[in-house]
Design a protein that fits this description.
This protein is of the alpha/beta class and 467 residues long. The chain contains 14 helices and 18 strands. Helix 2 runs parallel beside helix 4.
Length: 467
């Protein structure tokens, strides 16, 4: 492993930060999402109902615990921390004339604390945290105005933190816009009756791709040393059989992944993109100058989330779940408590497939195990989490050392317990650190190290030699 390999962890403001009414912050799209129970989706409200519980309001309260939490990351030896900035903390309504200084100062303090310990911030600009006001006023990413508003926000934070942040990711899991049944997190969109969903989806995708490229163009003017990445939701997928039709179905399953990364890396709508547009019978507007922006705003590195794998084919008898994705059950794999198939080798396969296609540096920006933890003796004995992560890190190391894949970092999800994006529950825990909150946000908020804490500490300290 390269000596400067970036070991760390990742989280998102909407699942972790809390402090939703503090420091001049405005409402985000997450703040009107009521909590749900296992297997159900959160209910999106038009406004806040005081009788309902909204998990993102408190989340696990990084806003008030950031110094303590960053100290825990430093104790594990983190070399980097991937986090997001909440847009509505910077521009409370998204289109305000001036940014919110209190919000900017909060992230100044966070970055200073990280850098104090030598932890490299990796910042996601858009991680499902759009100001709610932009949905109400403009209809979210249906509207072209979102391009300039999002770029203005990005320029504000890039200028402010240009001496503190080097790595920037534009949109989290940008391809999930094509996967989500209701792309509320991805684009602030709830499809309306009678509207052409396909056209709306492809138009929003185009606007986000232009916004991503324009952000990169402007960012490089601010600091030529900035490194920009995309972030793709990636599930390794296998054909059910060697039948050619199953192989073709596998090809089709990967098109929504390649659609976005092709544009962000090649700088154009490739033949893969054009064929997918035709297959979906998609119609959307491209204005003069858009294609030039796409061409000039390509990324420097490819980052992706990886949790599980799926099977695709003509005759799937049993289905399996994944991160927004669904597909067939693989009889050779075990599953998590949430039905996600555990496939460490799939990570190595994925790294090879991505690198063979694009030949740019890779970064594993999310990988982890969500499980129900039993808290006793002021800790959690989570060997199951250690086993999951160990096997995936072994696959990552093999890809780097044996397959010569250029991968410069790994951030597991999420080092400190956070609320679930899908349901808002606390019971689905990922962290090395247990946070004392329940599914209704009740508890002390106190932090406790799990058994996996010291295990990952050794992984980082030995640069992956002791796992």
């Amino acid at each position: 492993m390269r000596e400067d390999f970036l070991w760390g962890g990742a989280s998102a403001a909407n699942q972790y930060e809390g402090g939703y009414q503090e420091g001049g912050r405005g409402l985000s799209i997450n703040d009107v999402e009521q909590g749900a129970s296992h297997g159900q989706s959160r209910i999106i409200h038009d406004c806040i109902d005081e009788k309902c519980y909204y998990p993102s309001h408190q989340a696990t309260d990084f806003y008030h615990h950031y110094q303590e939490d960053i100290a825990l990351l430093a104790e594990m030896g983190f070399r980097c921390y991937r986090m997001s900035i909440c847009w509505s903390r910077i521009y409370p309504h998204g289109d305000d004339e001036i940014p919110n200084e209190e919000g900017l100062q909060f992230y100044d303090r966070v970055f200073d604390e990280l850098l104090k310990y030598g932890i490299e911030p990796i910042v996601t600009l858009h991680h499902f945290e759009m100001p709610l006001a932009l949905v109400k006023k403009y209809g979210g990413w249906r509207n072209r105005k979102m391009i300039d508003l999002s770029v203005r926000y990005a320029k504000t934070v890039m200028e402010r933190y240009q001496n503190k942040v080097k790595y920037w990711i534009t949109f989290n899991e940008i391809n999930s816009l094509f996967i989500a049944e209701v792309p509320w997190h991805q684009a602030g969109i709830i499809y309306q009756e009678g509207e052409n969903k396909t056209d709306v989806m492809f138009q929003a995708a185009h606007y986000q791709l232009v916004a991503s490229a324009k952000t990169i163009i402007e960012g490089r003017k601010i600091n030529s040393q900035f490194q920009f990445g995309n972030m793709i939701l990636y599930n390794c997928c296998y054909a059910m059989t060697c039948h050619p039709l199953d192989q073709m179905m596998l090809h089709d399953k990967l098109l929504p992944i390649y659609y976005f990364s092709d544009v962000q890396i090649r700088g154009k709508y490739t033949n893969t993109c054009l064929s997918y547009q035709k297959r979906m019978n998609a119609h959307f507007d491209i204005e003069e100058g858009d294609l030039e922006i796409l061409r000039n705003g390509v990324i420097d590195f490819y980052s992706f989330s990886y949790y599980s794998s799926l099977v695709e084919g003509r005759e799937i008898e049993q289905s399996a779940d994944g991160n927004l994705l669904d597909g067939g059950k693989n009889p050779y794999l075990e599953t998590t408590q949430w039905g996600w198939q555990i496939d460490p080798l799939g990570l190595r396969i994925s790294l090879n497939l991505i690198y063979d296609r694009y030949q740019i540096p890779l970064f594993v920006s999310e990988n982890g195990l969500g499980a129900v933890d039993e808290f006793k003796n002021n800790t959690v004995y989570d060997n199951y989490r250690i086993d999951y992560l160990r096997q995936h890190i072994q696959a990552l190391i093999a890809a780097i050392e044996e397959d010569f894949i250029d991968c410069f970092g790994y951030t597991m999800w999420s080092p400190i317990d956070i609320i679930s994006a899908g349901t808002g529950e606390m019971k689905k825990r990922y962290g090395f650190v247990y946070v004392d909150y329940d599914d209704l946000g009740q508890g002390s908020g106190q932090r406790y190290k799990k058994q996996s804490f010291s295990w990952y500490q050794k992984v980082v300290q030995t640069n992956g030699k002791e796992i």
